[in-house]
Design brief:
- This protein has one domain.
- Helices cover 67% and strands 0% of the residues.
- Helix 4 packs across helix 5 and helix 5 crosses helix 6.
């Protein structure tokens, strides 16, 4: 019985390490320092820079319920900044242990925020 608890803790720690490494790699792909992924608050500032949102949005991230809306917006914009769809951004919110590594270790290149301001490269394919 106790070994199940140990295996659960090890699995949990493995997922945490995977997420940290993934965010580190995403930051590097966007031309930001990877180590910023492990610095509290600064990592949110860097993420806002990557998605071309104002730094003052960090204040919105500490307001209950507003932070949920901001997180959705930021992750959808992060997906678009790498040429992915809004659905991929939603996937990063609900299944981050799958979608963040896909973004980090995939072939997707950072588009310097140009895709999110023009509606995304994939959105134009739908018209």
């Amino acid at each position: 019985m106790e070994s199940m608890g140990t295996l659960g803790v090890l699995a949990y720690l493995g997922v945490i390490v995977l997420l940290i490494v993934s965010i580190w790699k995403i930051f590097e792909k966007a031309g930001k320092p990877g180590w910023a992924a492990i610095v509290p608050i600064y990592n949110m500032i860097v993420l806002l820079e990557i998605v071309n949102k104002p730094v003052w949005w960090i204040v919105l991230m500490v307001i209950p319920f507003v932070n949920i809306v901001i997180a959705i917006i930021v992750y959808v914009e992060l997906a678009k900044a790498f040429g992915k769809s809004a659905g991929f951004g939603i996937g990063m919110i609900f299944l981050s242990f799958i979608f963040l590594p896909l973004l980090a270790f995939g072939e997707d290149q950072y588009l310097d925020g140009t895709a999110s301001s023009s509606g995304g490269a994939l959105d134009s394919d739908l018209v």
